[in-house]
Design a protein that fits this description.
Length: 396
């Protein structure tokens, strides 16, 4: 889906984020047009018939496709380096659709255990209701992946870095295991974004995002996107989305399109701020431990830096004093706001054990390192000195 210039040059991702998927109307607008329409008019009944049979290009109904949504999909595909993409109403709609469109009763899903709470619900609770079994493994343990593959394994699924403890998984190693088994590797790349990590370059087959996070980047709109090769989109995903209807609104797609123009700049600044904050926290006596892929102290730091261009904007850390200490610290913050969202221009903090991962058993949380003192900080675009001063006061 990469865009080329008139003289045949292929554009780089940062330029694609500004120009990819642009299809101007006869008015020649500089900003992408917003098509707020549910339906489309045909020149004749014969034209409508051809359109429904896919014998001529064009749009049929905005539950299926829409010019603004299509522009967002094409730009995301160009940015990711994917053959095609389909947008969804939310990030969880993207995750669910990427799996349900491909799986059937009797299939098996192999997943890393360190997942966002809703993703773990899909794998552990929802899929088994429809006859799809699942196994969770420590994603960092490549031998565990190999041993858990079954003859009916169809999808391997993971997040890297993971939510919230920022475990890093070797994408290429897991991709090789998936392909040897004839399975697809599906990766939730929301923490890294396509700016810092492009999983398809390491062998991933399908990449999903919650566009609500960094892609919007300002806490305004819900959205998601699934990226894959043309065969997966055509044979599995497109018709599933058409018939089940988790459609992205054209307005939200338009907001996301405009946000993509600054995604590279924002994510790199987020990462610079996050590294400064992580280094401050790592040296503070009130902090038990810090998880950040960009720090040499991270257990998978070398692997992270071989897959990612920077450590990202999420910092997880454990405050001394358990839940009471974590709550006291968070409540004392003035610049950083308490919210379970992430990827916003504002710095946001949450307590995973009581919010995003509260449905897990205490034993499962302990296994994942989600202790009572753990906080997840999404570092924003404020001045890092103000963020550090805010946390220093709160820790005091």
């Amino acid at each position: 889906m990469s865009k080329t210039t008139r003289d045949g040059r292929t554009l780089r991702p940062r330029t694609e984020a500004v120009h990819g998927g642009t299809n101007r109307t006869a008015f020649g607008e500089t900003s992408e047009a917003l098509f707020l329409t549910s339906g489309y008019v045909y020149d004749s009944m014969e034209a409508a018939e051809r359109r429904f049979k896919n014998e001529e290009p064009g749009f049929v109904y905005s539950r299926f496709s829409n010019p603004t949504v299509r522009a967002f999909e094409e730009r995301m595909a160009a940015l990711e380096g994917a053959e095609d993409a389909r947008a969804t109403a939310t990030g969880m709609a993207a995750v669910t659709s990427a799996m349900l469109c491909y799986l059937k009763a009797g299939d098996h899903v192999l997943s890393s255990r360190a997942l966002f709470g809703s993703c773990r619900y899909i794998v552990e609770d929802l899929l088994p209701r429809f006859g799809v079994t699942s196994t969770l493994v420590d994603g960092r343990d490549i031998d565990a992946w190999k041993k858990a593959v079954q003859p009916n394994t169809k999808i391997l699924f993971l997040e890297t870095p993971s939510n919230p403890t920022l475990e890093v998984i070797d994408i290429k190693a897991v991709a090789d295991i998936a392909h040897a088994a004839g399975a697809k590797l599906v990766i939730d790349n929301v923490f890294a974004t396509p700016t810092l990590q492009r999983p398809m370059e390491f062998g991933a087959d399908v990449v999903v995002y919650s566009a609500t996070k960094h892609i919007d980047g300002q806490g305004r709109c819900l959205g998601g996107v699934v990226l894959a090769d043309q065969q997966f989109i055509s044979d599995y995903l497109a018709n599933f989305l058409r018939q089940t209807g988790p459609s992205l609104s054209p307005f939200n797609a338009w907001v996301m399109l405009k946000s993509l123009e600054t995604l590279d700049l924002r994510v790199r600044e987020h990462a610079r701020n996050a590294e400064a904050v992580a280094r401050f926290l790592e040296g503070h006596k009130g902090i038990e431990r810090v998880f950040y892929p960009g720090l040499p102290s991270h257990p998978q730091h070398d692997l992270a830096m071989s897959q990612m261009e920077a450590g990202g904007n999420i910092v997880a850390f454990e405050v001394k004093g358990g839940k009471a200490g974590a709550f006291r610290f968070s409540n004392a913050l003035q610049v950083v706001k308490i919210s379970n969202n992430l990827g916003d221009s504002k710095s946001l903090i949450t307590h995973p054990a009581t919010t995003t991962h509260q449905r897990l058993t205490p034993e499962a949380r302990e296994e994942l390192g989600i202790r009572e003192g753990l906080l997840r900080l999404s570092v924003g675009l404020e001045d890092s000195a103000d963020l550090i001063e805010d946390m220093e006061r709160a820790l005091a």
